[in-house]
Amino acid sequence: MTQTITVEGMTCGHCEQTVEDALREVSGVTDATADREAEQASVDGDADVTSLVQAVEDAGYTSHA
């Protein structure tokens, strides 16, 4: 299953990589792709959306489902 969450505050490719890395650390995530221009991240797997949002916020960005 693919979920999309909003991620605010990404300004460069490094930011995208940081968000992707944080999301991939969440249990149940098989892949993650961040897009700073769309202000979104797409996440594959069966992780709980609350865990995804928390991982992004812990990485220093604003997020919501």
TrEMBL record:
Domain of life of the organism in this record? Archaea
> Where is the HMA domain positioned along the sequence?
1-64
Q: Which UniProt keywords apply?
A: Plasmid
The parts of the chain that form a coiled coil are none
Nucleotidyltransferase found in the keyword field = no
The protein's matches in InterPro entries, at most eight in alphabetical order, are given as: HMA_dom (IPR006121), HMA_dom_sf (IPR036163)
Which GO terms label this protein's molecular function in UniProt?
A: metal ion binding
What SUPFAM superfamilies does UniProt report for this protein, alphabetically?
A: HMA, heavy metal-associated domain
Q: Name one Pfam family in it.
A: HMA
Q: Could you tell me what this protein is called?
A: Heavy-metal-associated domain-containing protein
The upper taxonomy is: Archaea, Methanobacteriati, Methanobacteriota, Stenosarchaea group, Halobacteria
